[in-house]
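Section 5.1 Outputs to date
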Amino acid sequence: MFRFLMVALAAASLTACASTPNALKTDVRDKIFIQEVNETWAAVDGKRAENADYLTGKADLQARLKSAVETEFKASPSGSDAARFEITVKSYSRVNAAMGNIIGGSNMVVADVRVVRISDGAELGVYKDVVGMHASNGGLIGAIAQAATKPDIVGIMTNGFAANLRAKFNSK
């Protein structure tokens, strides 16, 4: 039941992403190019701060999220107004292979992304709840396969986040 609930929530969040109107008007979006990406961490670690896997994954995510977004937006619209993304990470979850595959759970990052014009600091729009996720649910075989192959969970999460941000940015 828990696994079904997690999958339903993930699907609902992705559906919400697809149906949400673009935070930027088309004429504004076409006049900018993304010159900078900044990231702040507002997620509260709580008891997870004692978990070594969580902390290692968090440090890896912090080191790679900005780069993934910069790469995704390297060929952003070629307008003349420089803009930056201000990424505020609101939540981060990390589960191990057994938890993700057998019990159910996902590795996820959720952030709000403000679009700010660099010349005057004006906020042009905000993309709410941009998600990057790596979900596992292959049962015992999936846990064994994941332990053997060691997928790049953080890479999947950061690239997924960047792709979801791009989809929101490109939406009409």
